[in-house]
Design goal:
693 residues, 5-stranded parallel beta sheet, two-stranded antiparallel sheet
């Protein structure tokens, strides 16, 4: 079984890598850009569309605010990029916003940021993959009919790619990400060229009108709707923070390479977002969804025009009119980049989880690297959480989008405030004038970033709270509480395990008493007795539970005839229990010898097939679990390898010292009962405890 499991693992994940090969997994900028920027760049597929969808509630007249909203989004994006350039230069360990907040604002602020980012990473995967399936479903109806299953399958595929290692996933994702950039930038350039040359570009929905449930609104209601559209457009900023959490994956100099990648991300993101929004506005493209309070209507007939194609697909069809290969290239690359956008979260979530685990705010398993030097446990947890969210929301992007951006702007705001504190702390110690000037400039950038992101966060919370943002706030609060509980547990355990200063570090017990639990006189019992005897305890005794008087008498006689130098104690069990009599006997033994140590030896079978575990050792597991709670009692498992274990290991196991087998390695397996109750041969449980498992 273990051989089959290992083979499957190697096929899916590749060969294991040695720890010293980790440097070979570091990323050059040309690979880091598609890995960390795919999320932010992919937002051009839905950010302009979300602005238009929200404005459509007020009717076609509200579309006039689209360019202004897009312009404000660009200002916020450039501000965040400039601010994070200071972050990645100052903090290169990979803690990102969590490290900034935790170092400069304290533990509580750090945990708030961590909870926000963890939620945002899960939502990034769910939204990106669901949007990808939705876009590809327009060309492949089978995907649309099974969008939940398809989305979960995509999450599993991305997980496997990341489990193979960072560099391999980056190489696999670089080509389609660059292809998407070429497709969108080419569409923008060609569309601009056609408009400049005087061509009239009209989208397929240009002749339709929008009927919104709040058409004709004005005043405060209109202002609120515009702010809501702005908060929807701010989905274009998601993914910027991933670079600050992925700095350790860059080659040296890590900080400068990460800062350069941020500039590239900002330039590309702004160009693509502005270009797609401008072309959509100039071509008259429209988007509506009845579930969001708007619908497209044919003015000639007054009939509902149905659900339109995504905005970026409308723009591509209009710009490349008469050249369908270019249109399909844009739409297919858009679907693929939305899938790959989830990869940003798969690079950020595990690293952040590792930082939290190292700080004892998350289980320590999240800090462990897998065979391919990736944080495998974090990858698996992220995939499971995203798949659960996709299943719960039926892979519907329109339902998932309201949950988005809350977490990311919480982390934006707190981290920028933390960076201002960071520069305030370092400035007094800076003697060089040029260095002080650079610090003041960085502080000013971070201060502006803090103010702007705080304002945007307020807008997002006010406009989206009732639409689903409350759920994200609740999840963040739950994660915050969970991390505090985990840290409290680790702290209590560390305090409990600290040696007492007024006592010797290694106080020796008065005496050692060994109890060997047996069910019948067979090879596992003999090995356990021999091993116990070799340790030279002060007393050694065999113990068995009598559930059948005849079987107990037979065991007693066989024990005496064998000349075993160890006394046998039979425990009566009128109710045919195994665990309780042993626990009571051990407790009485401890009571009579409070200063001594009692060691309980339990013979167990080692099997090689998964289903054999169901037939053996069940009683032993239950008894061990109970004995572990007895103070002053040590529990030792004495293994006996069955023939199947040798087969699973791929080669015969060496016999334990002092217990060379006298029979053939392929000896018949002992009877199915090795529990301490005599007469248990009719049961399937082995080990010391059970007679019938």
């Amino acid at each position: 079984m273990s051989t089959l499991t290992d083979l499957t693992k190697r096929v899916l994940l590749g060969r294991a890598l040695r720890s010293e090969q980790q440097h070979g997994q570091l990323l050059p900028k040309r690979i880091a850009l598609p890995i960390f920027a795919s999320d932010a760049l992919s937002s051009v597929a839905y950010a302009p569309q979300e602005i238009m969808l929200t404005l459509g509630v007020a009717g076609i007249a509200a579309y006039q605010y689209t360019p202004w909203i897009a312009g404000v989004v660009v200002v916020v994006l450039l501000t965040v990029v400039a601010s994070y350039r200071q972050n990645v230069r100052a903090y290169t360990s990979g803690g990102g916003d969590f490290e900034v907040a935790n170092t400069n604002l304290g533990e509580r602020s750090g945990l708030v940021v961590a909870a926000a980012l963890l939620c945002d990473y899960v939502l990034t995967v769910a939204v990106s993959v669901s949007a990808a399936v939705e876009n590809l479903g327009a060309s492949f109806p089978l995907l649309a009919d099974h969008r939940v299953e398809a989305a979960i399958a995509v999450v599993v595929l991305i997980s496997l790619m990341n489990l193979r290692g960072v560099r391999e996933s980056g190489a696999a994702f670089a080509i389609p990400t660059y292809a998407f950039m070429i497709a969108v930038l080419g569409m923008i350039v060609w569309g601009a060229a056609r408009l400049i040359s005087g061509d009239e570009l009209r989208a397929e929905t240009a002749g339709l009108t929008i009927q919104g449930e709040s058409a004709g609104i004005a005043g405060f209601a209109l202002a609120f709707l515009v702010l809501r559209a702005f908060s929807s457009g701010c989905t274009a900023l998601t993914g910027v923070e991933a670079i600050s959490n992925g700095v350790p994956a860059f080659r040296r100099p890590k900080g400068e390479n990460a800062a350069t990648t941020l500039v590239l991300l900002g330039v590309l993101g702004v160009t693509m977002f502005v270009g797609v929004t401008a072309l959509a506005y100039e071509t008259g493209a429209k988007f509506a969804d009845p579930t969001h309070g708007s619908r497209l209507v044919d003015p000639a007939t007054g009939q509902d025009a149905g659900t339109p194609d995504p905005v970026i697909a409308q723009v591509a069809r209009t710009v490349f009119e008469g050249f369908s290969p270019a249109f399909y290239f844009v739409t297919v690359m858009t679907g693929i980049i939305l899938v790959l956008a989830a990869n940003t979260a798969f690079n950020g979530f595990p690293v952040l989880g590792s930082i939290l685990a190292r700080s004892r705010f998350m289980p320590r398993q999240l800090h462990t690297r897998g065979d391919r030097l990736a944080f495998s446990n974090g990858i698996v947890i992220l995939a499971a959480a995203a798949a659960l969210l996709i299943y719960a929301y039926d892979a519907a992007v329109t339902q998932l989008i309201p949950l988005y951006t809350v977490g990311v702007f919480v982390s934006f705001t707190i981290s920028q405030i933390g960076m201002v504190r960071h520069w305030n702390r370092l400035l007094p110690a800076a003697a060089d004038a040029r260095r002080r000037s650079a610090m003041r400039r960085a502080r000013a950038i971070n201060a502006v970033g803090a103010c702007i992101t705080a304002l945007v966060l307020t807008v997002v919370l006010v406009t989206k709270f009732a639409s689903g943002a409350w759920l994200v706030c609740l999840a963040m609060a739950g994660l915050y509480a969970l991390m505090r509980v985990i840290r409290g547990h680790y702290d209590r355990v560390a305090e409990e395990l600290e040696p007492d200063r007024d006592k010797p570090v290694a106080a020796l017990p008065g005496r050692t008493h060994v109890l060997v639990l047996v069910s019948q006189l067979h090879k596992p019992t003999l090995r356990a007795v021999e091993y116990a005897h070799a340790l030279r305890p002060d007393t050694l005794q065999a113990v068995s539970v009598s559930v059948d008087p005849d079987a107990a008498a037979e065991l007693r006689g066989e024990w005496e005839r064998s000349g075993m130098p160890v006394p046998l104690e039979l425990l009566e069990s009128p109710y045919r229990e195994i665990t309780r009599p042993v626990l009571e006997y051990v407790h009485r033994f401890r009571t009579d010898h409070p200063r001594d140590v009692v060691a309980v030896f339990i013979p167990e079978y080692v099997v090689g097939r998964w289903w054999e575990n169901l037939l053996h050792n069940q009683s032993a597991l239950r008894l061990k679990a109970r004995l572990l709670f007895q103070p002053g009692v040590m529990v030792t498992s004495v293994p006996w390898q069955l023939a199947s274990s040798e087969r699973a290991g791929g080669r015969p196991e060496r016999a334990a010292p002092g217990s060379v087998r006298k029979s053939s390695p392929r000896h018949p397996a002992p009877g199915p009962g090795s529990a301490p109750g005599p007469g248990s041969g009719n049961g399937t449980g082995t080990g010391p405890a059970g007679t019938r498992d």
